[in-house]
What we know:
Largest sheet: 9 strands, antiparallel
Strand content: 15-25%
Number of helices: 17
Number of strands: 17
Low-confidence stretches: none
Helix content: 40-55%
CATH topology: Creatine Kinase, Chain A, domain 2
Distance between the termini: 25 Å
Structural class: alpha+beta
Mean pLDDT: 95
Amino acid sequence: MSTHLRRAAADESPVSEADLVAYFAAGCKPPERWRVGAEFEKFALARGTGRQLGFDDGIESRLCHLAERFDWEPHGEGGRVTTLTRGGSTISIEPGGQVELSTAPATDVSELKAELDLHLAELRAVCDPAAVAWCAAGVTPFSRVDEIPLNPRPRHRLMAEYLPTRCEYGLHMMKATASTQVTFDYADEADAGRKFAVALCLSPVVNAAFANAPLHAGRATGFTSFRGRVWQGMDPDRSGFLAELLAGDVTFDRWAGFVLDVPLLFTEIGGTFRPAPGVTFREWMARGLHGHYPTLHEWDVHISTVFTEARMKRFIEVRGADANPTPLALAVPAVWKGLLYDSDALHAAVDLAAEFPPAELVALSGAAARDGLRAAHRGKPLADWCREVVAIADAGLRRGDRPAEAAFLDPLREVVATGRSPGDRWPVGGVAAVLAACEYP
């Protein structure tokens, strides 16, 4: 869930629909400037019980220690430290206390690995490793949602009031899930549309390979990825696979039109957060709220409350993989970079994506959440489909100017070769065994 630090007052003029489309066009870059970013979310779990540690259970104090010891700049709301920045990187806290590293844009997956390794070393340096395990899983394994305190950020408080009125699993999504998300650049509108469509159509296949959430509240869920089940039950106004958008060419104008008609989750006017008054962004632009009309900053924030499987800002976010510990976590940016950043690979990915009609994506995603790579599409296990995805990505990386990046696919190749997702291999046992399955090595 994105963190937004308010930018300079130069952004404060009201926007038109043309400005909103131009917002996406401003993200176009030539291939030599393309970069990869990643967001690695994780849980701090009490080693003895597996209980998820929340914001007031020591997460905020650990942010303060990171700032003191490792030159992170703290940012806060209401006197509480909720975000750290250093260079182009950000550490932020999700609603249930999950810690997210948003990396600086990188040219090579090895740079993402180096940053994640440093982040984990710094986290371990500010807590007792005998008491706290830093774990990556799609869903927190032992705590119930009602046991997880909500952090004090005003926007999260308002989201926690609104989302349960729209869906069954709003609080689960906010407080109990973790993912690995990746971001990619695009050359122009056509390139953005192709990449966006490929990301939406192939996400169920790729996500099945990273499905890693079979346990929640101390019980087997019956799903390889209970996080996938949570997202199946999210607010339909702002989530899903955008079948209507995929019915034609994906353009900046059509994507902007979808986002304009998503209801507001909240407003931030004059530094004050307020509940959403039941209007869309389009209606806010037309009528104003409290005498205020939205700006580009508020458009940027609003897009971050759209929870579709892929999301376009001034880059493309691919959002559906469960959190996994390293080294498998690094295969998420590697597989998508291989698919999206080589022209031949992208062409092959477009052809493969045609095997997954938009109208079938919701059902396929549900099957992938339940059965992972054992789920089938058109009579073929998703493991076989994923093998094709990995082969295309591997060829794309090897044709690039950094062919050694293909090695980051090796953990994914091993998963696909077994035909079993990570969540299929969790132990049946006590807390220590489960933590060992999802703790960063």
